[in-house]
Amino acid sequence: MKVEMNIDDVAKLARLKLSAEEREKFSSQMSDILSYVQKLNAVDTTHVQAADHVEAVQNVTRPDEVKPSLDPDSFLKHAPLGRDQFFIVPQVIE
Amino acid sequence: MSESLMDLTLHELSELMRARKISSLEVMQAKLARLKEREPQIHAYIRWDEKAAIEEARQRDNVQDHQGSLWGLPIANKDIICVEGVETSCASKILSGYIPPYNATVVERLRGEGAILFGNTNMDEFAMGSSTETSHFGVTRNPWDLTRTPGGSSGGSAAAVAGGLAIAALGTDTGGSIRQPAALCGCVGLKPTYGRVSRYGLIAFASSLDQIGPITQDVEDAALLLEILAGHDSKDSTSLKVEVPRYREHLKKGIRDMKLGLPKEYFISGLDPQVKVAIDEAIKVYTNLGVEVVECQLPYTEYAVATYYVLATAQASSNLARYDGVQYGYRAPNFSNLVDMYFETRSLGFGPEVKRRIILGTYALSSGYYDAYYLKAQKMRTLIRQDFEEAFKKCDAILTPTSPSCAFKIGERMNDPLTMYLSDIFTISANLAGIPGISIPCGFSKEGLPVGLQILGKHFDEATLLRTAYAFEQATDHHKRKPVVR
Fold it and tell me: What pTM, to 2 d.p., does this model score?
């Protein structure tokens, strides 16, 4: 079964702008990949439980202790733009 | 070919170091000489700091009491594991300028044993690929044949170890990214059980599948490194409190009492005949060692690739949503407003394969499609895991080829993502099931390209994997063959 994806909608959700060339190439590749994935439908999974962690890990907790954290300025070193413990972004509210 | 300390293993060098027959500085100088000689052809690394490495080596040499089993020995790091103060980019433009303010737990553990983290190795962008061709920093070449890829995504690490540019290296494995390049480059590559090694400080690709593991020249080095890397870490809530054995002590126990399984689903028509010949030879080696080899079944194998590409891309699309030009690395130079900044940054910062996977994963998680794709794949994952549980009732470990072919040519599969995805067909199931797997060299094709044998084991039973691999290595000398790099 051939499956098509509305690539413009999905790219928008993913916050990606695609060039005309990318759009065309990805559309046909996505169609191939999704058509391949359809083979999963051959297996009846109605009564199968979905997997989570390979071991039965639940509710991992730790003691609620006060510990020092990293200096906020150290995070600004890897940011494109920042000052006085803040990340700088373009104006959000007009 | 020049003789070099770089051709010795970690355990050999460690012994020489303990006996004070060599210094850390000598090892470091040997490494730098090799880099000068071979790195221009192989391009295994994205970056390294020569001055810092020499300085660290001198510091180690100045300490009278050697503490730790890796004292003064350089280990190469994959460009996806955070080292404080060292630019870590996942081979992506979008993380250019990202300098982590902390160390990954594995980095702390290696340093705790006296190791020196040296150089960040090349990889597929965000570990998405099977050939190290999607790197923003150019391709890495296979030391056995420079026209071929080293596999991927840990292709830089495998090429560095195979090409004598690293004694050992870290890799990460989400769908085969340690084992497949190890196979294609003739190294040993170990993917531990999910939860065995802390992922703290590993930049996430698919969080339910990712594991860190060693790429080494022999099995003893893999055992040595796993002893150090493994263990619970309170900073990674998915790492488990399971006792870590002294793996090296298990190696020499022998394998006469063992039963090894051969899954018929892994010996398919798409398997390269030369790989088949080498694997058949490897099975004979085990039979001659007195091991019982039995047939086993993993009926859901044919669904593994489809299952994987839904789950891995969905988790990747979520994990990579954080790269938007605000907190990390790159921001696009031109944009009209905040939302446009996200679009521009992501469109210019990510390469084609990453975009492809983000789109696929976003689709699988989007409203109306979640049940049909993501939930379905999570259920398939349960079935694949149950396959292994059944199979391990009849055997202690499973033998398969690591990859259906030997190293392929650079560019050969780049325009056909589905064919590229299918090259991981034998490695993906282990990640889905969470079980450990190791690839060891088991022969060569007529063209002189290495073939890898994969051994899969039960959850947290890396000791049996390593013992099985070690017995094979003792009976053969494939791991001793080195490429002639020209």
Answer: 0.97
